[in-house]
């Protein structure tokens, strides 16, 4: 698939006194990511903002404390992704640890129930005898479900982080950093982070009532997983939450479910990085919600012993392998369609709207994301659903707020979209099958208005060229120590020229290389999912590459390895 790619070096920025003692390169890297004072590098839990800054936590805490005292039935309504699963497991586990004896959970089935607290989910909660419903990672747009719960005499607490609409649901209390008049400094906190803050407020409320409570830090492993897996911006608050959770996991203080998921993913907890939470643990939890029932993921996270957790983690691993097989087939079909669009070397359209009969509704989001990464275009992938509508999952590129575009299409052509929701980089929608072609035209037309050539060119931002002295284990460990890196706090990428010493294909589509720097230092490198029509090429002796520098731990040996993000031949 053809897409324009540009490697640009980040401009030099002013570095203050806070960087005294740091190597100039590292100081530049951090300053470019918004670090302006030493306190921002302190990722200790004491740096977290107080829970009373998050609007509604005090009211939610009192309702839950009273419910525990009366032993009322509390039902947690979750969501079918990793953020929703970790939020549900966190809320259930902590409430039980705080002496709540009647706690249950419901996760809507992606295919039967749809998203969030619907009237159908409320009916299920009623059958369980629920008196209080607590939503996690959902609820802010669930007006009908909240109304049904209130009509049934239930108390409703919404904890969510998604953007609210013009009107808020009629819940007893809403805890959401994005609601009006909320002073919490991190609007980017994930759903699991919001749930954690509600529980911090509850713990404080119980302590003021003279009740002993455990330290909630022991649940930060769940918070870290959900935060990274949901790809929220790693601002100051989220970096602290992730770092604290990572430190607990590396030290062996994590729940059996996470330990078992790391085992099936062949990840060493002591060497764990934030990216491992997103690429190893998150997809296995998500696979349950995509192909089956998210309850398997939640039960794994709630498991009380390693043997039980290992059995559930194996199920999740099998589901993830099945998901990968389905995804591969769907992605290849999508790539074939896109290849036809630019078969003559023409530039791709500004947006891609994909559909194929037989595509799996639970996997279209991943396919949309993969094609977006390869083509650098906003992508919507559709699949058939049981209700007769096409269900679409949208993924965007920087510079395009995908939900705003869908809202614009809906306002101009109100007959096209049945329903939609989401945020800047991802959204979901439904439309009638017969409206697909008209929608494709309308959506692409709006994207063309919003995006120019600059936005449609993928830019890889480099922190510059690394001298051979930096391609050593001490520097890489120093880089790791200033993480976690991720969305909004990007892992450093460097670029430079190399001589190819050796290269070979490993796995199905990965290129393993041995490269030599201009200073005659040899280093290993790997490029994932290469185009086998272009590489390997024995005639190429030199290349220019944009790369991440990392440590490769293999058979008890640690070495520096470059992960090539983009490279091209130098003739």
User: Order of strands side by side in the largest beta sheet?
Assistant: 3-2-4-5-6
Count of alpha/pi helices: 16
Number of strands: 17
Shape descriptor = globular
Average pLDDT, rounded to a whole number, is: 93
Please state the structural category: alpha/beta
List unreliable stretches of 5+ residues. Answer: none
Helix content: 25-40%
Strand content: 15-25%
Biggest sheet: strands, sense, closure?
A: 5 strands, parallel
Cα gyration radius (Å)? 24 Å
The end-to-end distance, rounded to whole angstroms, is 22 Å
Can you walk me through this structure?
By secondary structure, the protein is α/β, with parallel strands linked by helices. The chain has 16 helices and 17 strands. A hairpin with a 5-residue loop joins strand 14 and strand 15 (522-527). Helix 3 (82-97) runs antiparallel to helix 7, helix 4 (119-127) runs parallel beside helix 5 (143-151) and helix 7 (220-229) crosses helix 8. It starts with a strand and ends with a strand.
Short structural description:
The protein contains 16 helices and 17 strands. It is α/β, with parallel strands linked by helices and 571 residues long.
Please describe the topology of this protein.
Blueprint: E1 5-9, H1 24-32, H2 57-70, E2 74-77, H3 82-97, E3 103-106, H4 119-127, E4 132-136, H5 143-151, E5 155-159, E6 173-175, H6 191-208, H7 220-229, H8 236-250, H9 256-264, H10 274-291, H11 295-302, H12 306-341, E7 352-355, H13 364-375, E8 379-384, E9 390-395, H14 402-412, E10 417-422, E11 426-431, H15 436-450, E12 458-462, H16 473-481, E13 494-506, E14 510-516, E15 522-527, E16 542-554, E17 557-570
Parallel strand pairs: 1-12, 2-3, 2-4, 4-5, 5-6, 7-8, 15-17
Antiparallel strand pairs: 8-9, 9-11, 10-11, 13-14, 13-16, 14-15, 16-17
Helix pairs in contact: 2-6, 3-6, 3-7, 3-11, 4-5, 6-7, 7-8, 7-10, 9-12, 10-11, 10-12, 11-12, 12-13, 14-15
């Amino acid at each position: 698939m053809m897409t324009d790619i540009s490697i640009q070096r980040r401009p030099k920025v002013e570095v203050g006194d806070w960087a005294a003692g740091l190597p100039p390169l590292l100081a530049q890297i951090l300053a470019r990511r918004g670090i302006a004072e030493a306190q921002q590098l302190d990722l200790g839990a004491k740096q977290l903002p107080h829970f009373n800054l998050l609007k509604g936590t005090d009211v939610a805490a009192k309702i839950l404390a009273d419910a525990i005292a009366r032993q009322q039935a509390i039902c947690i309504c979750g969501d079918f992704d990793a953020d929703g699963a970790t939020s549900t497991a966190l809320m259930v586990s902590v409430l039980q640890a705080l002496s709540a004896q009647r706690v249950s959970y419901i996760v809507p089935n992606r295919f039967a129930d749809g998203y969030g607290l619907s009237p159908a989910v409320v009916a299920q909660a009623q059958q369980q005898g629920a008196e209080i419903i607590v939503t996690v990672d959902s609820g802010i747009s669930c007006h009908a479900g909240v109304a049904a719960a209130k009509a049934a005499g239930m108390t409703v607490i919404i904890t969510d982080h998604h953007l609210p609409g013009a009107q808020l649901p009629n819940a007893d209390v809403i805890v959401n950093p994005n609601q009006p008049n909320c002073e919490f400094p991190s609007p980017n906190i994930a759903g699991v982070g919001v749930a954690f803050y509600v529980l911090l407020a509850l713990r404080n409320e119980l302590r003021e009532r003279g009740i002993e409570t455990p330290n909630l830090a022991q649940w930060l492993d769940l918070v870290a997983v959900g935060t990274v897996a949901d790809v929220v911006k790693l601002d100051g608050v989220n970096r602290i939450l992730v770092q604290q959770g990572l430190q607990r996991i590396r030290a062996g203080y994590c729940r059996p479910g996470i330990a078992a998921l790391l085992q099936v993913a062949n990840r060493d907890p002591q060497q764990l990085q934030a990216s491992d939470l997103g690429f190893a643990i998150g997809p296995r939890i998500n696979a349950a919600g995509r192909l089956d029932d998210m309850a398997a993921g939640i039960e794994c996270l709630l498991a009380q012993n390693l043997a039980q957790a290992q059995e559930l983690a194996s199920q999740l691993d099998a589901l993830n392998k099945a998901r990968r097989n389905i995804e591969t087939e769907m992605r290849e079909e999508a790539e074939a369609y896109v290849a036809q669009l630019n078969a003559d070397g023409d530039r791709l359209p500004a947006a891609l709207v994909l559909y194929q009969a037989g595509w799996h509704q639970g996997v279209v989001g991943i396919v949309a994301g993969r094609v977006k990464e390869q083509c650098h275009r906003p992508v919507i992938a559709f699949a058939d659903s049981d209700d007769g509508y096409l269900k679409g999952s949208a993924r965007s590129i920087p510079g395009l707020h995908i939900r705003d575009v869908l809202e614009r299409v809906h306002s101009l052509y109100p007959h096209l979209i049945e329903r939609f929701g989401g945020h800047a980089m991802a959204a979901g929608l439904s439309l009638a099958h017969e409206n697909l072609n008209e929608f494709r035209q309308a959506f692409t037309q709006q994207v063309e208005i919003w995006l120019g050539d600059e936005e449609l060119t993928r830019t890889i931002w480099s922190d510059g060229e690394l001298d051979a002295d930096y391609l050593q284990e001490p520097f890489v460990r120093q880089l790791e120590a200033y993480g976690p890196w991720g969305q909004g706090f990007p892992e450093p990428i460097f670029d430079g020229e190399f001589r190819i010493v050796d290269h070979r294909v490993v796995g199905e589509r990965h290129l393993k290389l041995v490269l030599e720097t201009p200073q005659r230092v040899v280093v290993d490198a790997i490029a994932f999912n290469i185009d086998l029509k272009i590489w390997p090429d024995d005639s190429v002796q030199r290349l220019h590459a944009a790369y991440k520098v990392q440590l490769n731990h293999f058979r008890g040996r640690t070495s520096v390895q470059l992960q090539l993000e983009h490279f091209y031949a130098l003739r």
